[in-house]
Amino acid sequence: MSGIQSERAGRVPASRRIALWTLTALSILLLALIGVRLQASGLPIAIWWPAAGVSLAFALRVARERRWVVIVLIFGLTAVANAIGGRPWQLCLLYGAFNAVEIVLVVGLLSRRDSTFRLDSLNAATRFVGAVLASAAVAAVGITTANVVVDGGGFFPTSVVIFASHSSAMMLIGSLAILPRDGGPRAHLAELVAHVLVVGGAVVLAFGPLGYTQLSFLTFAALAAGCLRFPLRVAIWSSLITSVAVLLLTLTSGGTAKLGTVGSPEAAVTLVVFMSAIGLFTVLVSVARFEGRRNAAVAVQAAEEIAAAERARASAMATQLDLERQREDFVTAASHELRTPVTTVLGYADLLGESPLTAEQRSWVDSTRRGAARLAGLLDGLTQAAAGGERVRLSVDDLIGDVCAAHHAEAVARRTDLVTTRSGLHVTAVESDARRALWSLVANAVTFAEAGTVEVSARRAGDDVTIAVSDDGPGMSPTTLANAFQRFFRGPEAEGRTASGIGLGLATARDLARRNDGDITLTSTPGEGVVATLRLPSA
Q: Which regions form coiled coils (predicted)?
């Protein structure tokens, strides 16, 4: 069968293809000649036709464009075999024609949806069995009718034998050519030996010298065990060999006589119906079991992939938590180490500010104090971002007023006007988080709107309150706007500006806002300033 499969895939050299076709043709002819010799008393036809199975296998596996050659070959070989068997030439031609029609019907029904039909699901097995039974019925009616017209004889026993003999051969032999790759567990030698002994015992008990035919159901039980345990190909071969054994025991009277004929039409009907039932049972049960194993394997694989993804997610979460812990440890340590010198700088700046200084010296001290105060605020923000707190109801007007008051000196130094508008609104947030987030926005606006105007206003937006901080500074380029929330990012607009920070303010502010179910957004047109909007839940 593998050679036929390769031939259809177009991978076989011409010499090998010729040898393959010749061997297959000889096999069909030989099996047809054997079938002609398998007779039953009172019946003008063979009681089993294995050539139908090989013919179907060849037609299913050969390339589509060469199938017509196979059909012609089946017609000719079947006619020749019957002629050698001594049948009238009219019957030889009719038998050949109906055998060819039978194969055409099966192939046509199976190839209607898919040119590469496989027995890989119960639905496919049902289609296969249905196509085989339908085509065998057509062949049985045609051959029996031809036989009645030419030679006379009865219609019922002959048609039943043809139907059952052809269907069993096609199911047990033809199915071998369209089996999928079975990745299930391999059959162990000990299991195979035990299976052979059990099936052989059941067959001999029912069809051997003792003739306990009422126990023939034991054969089905043994074959069912094989269908449920072994790979597809092993199960079907087991049933095929069992059917041949039953046929030979029947033809030899239970193994007590030479090869002869079946004693009566009734016995022939019982025999071939039994063989056909084995074929139907084996195909449906073994393919259903294959589909179940495959679906179970897919489910297991999916579960393993989900488990692997969960393990990866847990590992990533653990890594993230570890990094977060390290970040918090670093922030805490850095804030602690830097706070002392910053406090010292602020203290000495205050002392100098109280001393008699020239105007130029006082401007130097004020600049130093503003820088130190800004650094102290940054340290406070980092500490608060790591610490968190409890959410409370906050007055937006008080929040804006406190933050703008803290930046008044800086705004005056930069000749920037700070304009606020009262709203009467309230938000729910951690006070330090909200204050620090707004502090960063106002600090940026005052820095960039040098000798300009910064406006801070609030309004209701659904269930939230938005606090907009707008300036008329140089604005942001699209690139700067896209990266504004990246830590340690500083756009070209910040170059050359005093106390412009290190690129942590906006990122920290947004983290604080999001921790309180809010957010910060930026809009800007180059040359027209920036509008930074802090959104927090309304109280």
A: none
